[in-house]
Design a protein that fits this description.
This protein is mostly beta strands and about 775 residues long. Helix content is about 10%, strand content about 45%. The protein is elongated.
Length: about 775
Amino acid sequence: MRAAIIIFIFITLCLISGQVLCFSVFGCTGGSLMFKCMYKNQSETDKQHKGKYFCRDESCKTGISTEIQNRWVYNERLALYDDENSRFFTVFISNLSREDDGKYTCGNSQTWSRDVELVVNNEPHCGTFAVQDEYIGQTIKVHCEYDHKFKTHTKVFYRLNKDPVHVMNSSGSSVEKLILSDSDKDDFTVTIRDISAADNGVYLCGVERYRSDDRPSETSITHMTFFKEIHLNVYSQMTSVQVQAYSSKSVFITCTFPQEFKGNEKFIQKDSQQKILVNRQNQWEYRGNMHMFDDSSEGLLKVFLTDLTTADEGTYRCGVNSNDNGLFTEVKLTVNSDDNFRALSYTSAIIGESVKLTCDFPEKHNETFKHFCKVNKKKICEGISSSEKKRFEFSVSSAGVFTVNIRDVSLRDAGVYWCGAETRHTHLTSVSLTNQHKLTPTMVGREGGSSEIRCPYDEKYSTEVKHLCKGMCFAPNAQKIIQSDEAHVNKPKISVTDETELNVFTVTLSDLRAEDAGIYWCAVKHAFNLPTELIIVMKDVITREASVGGSASISCKSVRNLSSLQRSFCRGDQPNICVRDGVRVSSYMRTNSRFSLTDQTSAGVFTVNINNLTEEDSGKYWCAEESSGSFVFTEVHLNVTEETKSPNTEGEISQDKEKSGFPVIVAVSVGLILLAVCLVLVLLKIKYNRKQGIISSSDRRREAGDHEVAQGEIQDSDPASTPLDSTVQLPTNPSDGLLYASVSFQKHEESLSDATAVFSKDEIHSDYASVKHSSTPN
């Protein structure tokens, strides 16, 4: 109604003033407007082509003017084009508002002018704006909605590639690869086939108007009201990559762009959905389960998708915007619901020791690399830093499985880790994550000893109160242990140190008992660290000796008197690893091959029996009891030895005696023979010595007797006929006759009646012959 009144008043004034070509134009808020300012006279003179202008009010302070023809000139939202071959010049006004409503003048600075009434209304569908990101080679459609009152008006489609350029209208035919169709609904569609980089730009949808809402006639001087602006971005595809991921897991995609685009705005887009712009560089941004990072130093766009479902499948485009022609990489993401990978694992690691994590990776893809990353505070899985890689060792244990061994575990290693497979392409790298590990630091405390729990915190919390709780702090069932501003006089077993320069809050627990075992949480306000597990090892050690083939019975005493205790018996050097990998029997599995467990709850004891022992069963075992995630262990040493074999049958006894007695018999026999020989030699020696003594005395007696006989013979013979000598002469010639006499010596020398030699055991004497040799004369 207001517009009709203004038009009526304006036409009336025009008629009164005699100005036949007074006219009005209509626009809408947020839209654009283009109209023609006709020359006053039809005759062509040079003055007609002098400077043209369009301005507001009589002062003409706001407006635009030009002396230039055949080229658009601009002044903020106003543009003017003077065509020397036409009887008019064209004015274009963008981004209209209600403040633009009013009287204007257009004309020639020399000879003529026209009054223009500009009416700006609020109309449905006016001032709409859309961005369409399309890609080279596609066929696209642009939809333009309008008010129903323009149903019979001619629809126009312009391109505003700096200058407004008519593309097509509904009254004309198709133009090359463009088709305009006006549907029964209140919108029309422009289809553009096989788009190229040249199609990049801004487009306008509008209608032809005459006066207000009247449909213009063929002779009417019309104007164009544009109600929708479309920004069409056409991108060139660098590459297309197929990426495979897994349901409930994550995928990491890194897009690489040429260095000249590293400072340009990056984006990610799924299918035909609206493009998501990364507004800030060098920091993570979040959109649901999508995390984005524009690395301006390297020209990279990193995209991290978590908690994947089949709804995340589709075609993604990661790209970079530019003034002329953007670039993008196409990512065809497939999410498999059945992966057969290990589920989330909770792993505890003792500070200072090593821990091994097992990872799956798909073998379907070629050129895959093993990937291992840790989730940071922003929930992004980042690769292990080069300074830490020396502690992380990778090894392939079997097909589709690799292990990561972390040496010298410290508190900084606590957190969430992902394993996966990395696939590298020219412009894109994808990491399909498969296994998630939550690594919890474990403190081993000995009964009666002490243990430190260190809680790092962000620098911004240095002046805040720190908490240590058994269980998650601030939860209803949490047990508060200590806080940094609390007096410790009532808790002599606990000491606290808050090192603000290191941003570490340390709690020391002394004189440890079984009840100190549990899961401890550090917290500042509502910021939590990962929990720390404290397990207690009792002082007492159980030792058992057993024989191969026998059995062993080990009684484990319950340390805590709790009804909810779960017992287990495991093997391993470290108690936490034992519970994870070495459980033999437990309250849930009372029989396991040669192992069995009997739980005597009333007596506070559970007994483990091991049958058919082997030497390999020797080693360190642990009696474990668990309640609500807190563990207490008692160390067990089992030593299995080979027992000496005992004979079982008489045959074996006889055989053993024979085998064992033969060497003894031989040794004894040889010893007896040697002893006999020695005795014989001794007796012979004694006899010989006695004989030598008797011979010596007999010789002396014989010499004396011979002397007496010789003297008797000398006395009885004729001294003149036979020479006498007192000595016995032995023959000097063997052939001389040997004369002898048999002599017997008895106890009494006077008895010489027998010429035979007699030997008697009872007589102590020696028989011998005195031999006298005489020479036979020749």
